[in-house]
Amino acid sequence: MNQAVPTGGAPTGRGPTGKVPTGRAARELLDHAQALAGAARAVLDDHRGAVEAAHTALSPLLDSLVGLELASIPASRLADVTEGRLRLGALEQAGYTTVGRVHGAGRYELRQIPGVGAQTADQALAAARQIAHAVRDTVAVRIDMDAADAETNALLVALHRLVEAGPDVRRAADAARRLTAELEPLLLAAAPARSRLRMLFSGRVAGARVPAAVASVQAVVLDADARGLRTLFGQVSVDLLRAPASEAEAWVDFELRSAEYYSLLAELSGSGPDRDAAEGFLPAGIADRVRGLRLDDTCLRVSLRGYQSFGARFALAQKRVILGDEMGLGKTVQAIAALAHLAAGGETHFLVVCPASVLINWRREVTARSTLRAVTVHGPDRQEAFGEWRERGGVALTTFDALATLPEATGCGVRPGMVVVDEAHFVKNPGTRRSRAVSGWTGHTERVLFLTGTPMENRVEEFRSLVRQLRPELAPLVTATHGVAGSHAFRRAVAPAYLRRNQDDVLGELPALVQADEWEEFSPADLEAYREAVGSGHFMRMRRAAYARPETSAKLNRLRELVAEAEANGLKVVVFSYFREVLRAVQEALGQGVFGPVSGGIPAARRQELVDSFGAVDGHAVLLSQIQAGGVGLNIQAASVVILCEPQIKPTMEHQAVARAHRMGQIRTVRVHRLLAADSVDQRMLDILARKDRLFDQYARRSDVAEATPDAVDVSDGALARRIVEEEQQRMAAPV
User: Which region ranges are annotated with the description Disordered (predicted)?
Assistant: First the structure.
């Protein structure tokens, strides 16, 4: 087992002058370089061991899937592989009627069959292996939370080691490979500098090369020390050598961040999506240019899936573009990755413009997924915040309306490294105040990234308006004909400025369930209603206060946006709330054509009729349901978007509701959006519930007892309510 090399200081002989060390200073330098190379080799060995352990655990699961596929393929396909040269009559008569049956047999076994000689047996086995290899490239392991077995447990424990170590693992392994490839030949060439005697016997020509090798070693070591590589290698080795997690711990972690596990699975098994699809069917020239850009993830705190890395590089390579991925594919993190790359290269100022409903989400995402500094430029203090951003840099986060009140780009003395405009279809009309404000910044910035989940091929005029702001020369080339010709034709026509991947394009790399917390800030009217509810000490009133003033409700506004994006993508939505009053507000906000609400007062047969009618609609539809009524007993797998209007006291209630859509028969990734109000009862509930023993909750919730009696593992409603009411009354009574 490798041990991480302890982090040491720089060798004493290397001063700021850059003078080539000699004598004792050279020996110290080479010792330091040797230790650095040892740390690099150690982390590569540790990483290789962890990856091999994951492959070992994955192999039997893949073998099982391949076996199932081969068992359904008739033996006649073996003849196709050999172009008809293989005679199968004797094999089939002996019961070897499937490729799987042949593949599982040995050469000696097949030769015992009358009429099967050595050549036929060898050809049949070779053809079966060829088909098995092709099948193995197409199967993908899916992890079923409700069907754990010993092999799946072993795989999760092995993956947990790599996932828990985080994105630093890949960063350290890449750096270690480059370092060892560069440093080890130099150490060999510089070795005579360790002693005068070795220099004496190295010869005149070789001796003349030694100082150059020492100088090169010095340069490599200085660069590695500046980048903190020895510390990185040591920490990653420690992470990879930790004791294995328990099975329960691995399952809990998988549920919390399944996307990272599935991304790693796709990488290990080579079962990622078709490259052309993952790259948005871009023309070869553009795709090659994007692939050639190496993404610097030094300032990132997360690992990107393959298509996400490509999206970030597309934005950087093409400079002024629209990223139009379908909702749920991570447009935000791709934008953050592009900003992080530029920050690693020395850029200091960035600007993100977005609707007010997602401002707080952007702040949380920038902080959680990168080392970049987020500055909210919104509200009454926006001018001061803008001035502070201008002086110190970071990612300025502002809204369309707030941007119009800020100094213009030409007069503030700052040129952002990139401007990101989220929900860019908000600025499709160039004559509006918000569009003019955005254009004032994008017109003076080299790199601009528009984000929108709305499929532009369905809105050619809208796209032409947006692309005119980014690449005016492309706008005349886009015609309605391209939209009529289909999505692939449209994407190829606008490839220099537009990248879109649909869920189906990258489904192989996506988890079956994507969960997102949608944090909103109370509008003034929301806050007033919430203060009244807190003052009354009524816990349930506090929970639904965010919807008490529907015309100005921040949560309702975000819900409308999510439903509109789902409609643009033809997806069905189910909206859950504990409260009938909230569902009535949602129904009024969305207008006609909404199914439900499903509630406890409706007979079971009628509830199923509503669900069946909802599922029978071709394309987009919305179903409303009380969470306690629709969360049990109904199958809503027609829906692939789930919106939870508020967090629930009982976590099991949320899990059961989501399980109505995320279940057998669901063919699309399910996206769950939980609407949350910052600094409110929502946040207090999540804080308290997060402090519970997660392992116990996981054990209990996965048991038959918990499924039958979910109340048994949840905190007391009354105790939780009293605690939150008291905390909120104290907080809101305190002076600001």
Answer: 1-22
Domain range list for the chain? 13-271, 273-507, 511-733
Question: Which tens digit of pLDDT belongs to each residue from 626-667?
Answer: 988 755 445 566 788 999 999 988 776 787 777 666 554 455
CA 300 to CA 287: how far, in whole Å?
23
Quick count: other Cβ atoms within 10 Å of Cβ 130? Answer: 14
Alpha-carbon dihedral 650, 651, 654, 656, rounded to 10 degrees: -90
User: Domain 511-733: which CATH class?
Assistant: alpha beta
**Helix (H, G, I), strand (E, B), or coil: what is residue 410?**
helix
Q: What are 421's strand-pairing partners?
A: 353, 450
Rounded to an integer, what distance in angstroms lies between the CA atom of residue 538 and that of residue 163?
A: 42
Q: What is the pLDDT of residues 297-355, one digit of tens each?
A: 889 988 888 899 999 999 999 999 999 988 778 899 999 999 999 999 999 999 999 98
Provide the 3-class DSSP secondary structure of residue 519.
strand
Measured CA distances, 623 to 2, 454, 565, 613 (Å): 56, 21, 16, 10
177: phi > 0 → left, psi -120 to 50 → alpha, else beta; which?
Answer: alpha
Strands 320-323 and 349-354: unpaired
Supply the DSSP symbol for 495: G
Contact between 75 and 42 under an 8 Å Cβ cutoff? The reply is no
CATH assignment of 273-507, among 3.40.50.10810, 3.40.50.2300, 1.20.1250.20, 1.10.10.10: 3.40.50.10810
Distance between CA 712 and CA 20 in Å, rounded?
71
Q: pTM of this prediction? A: 0.68
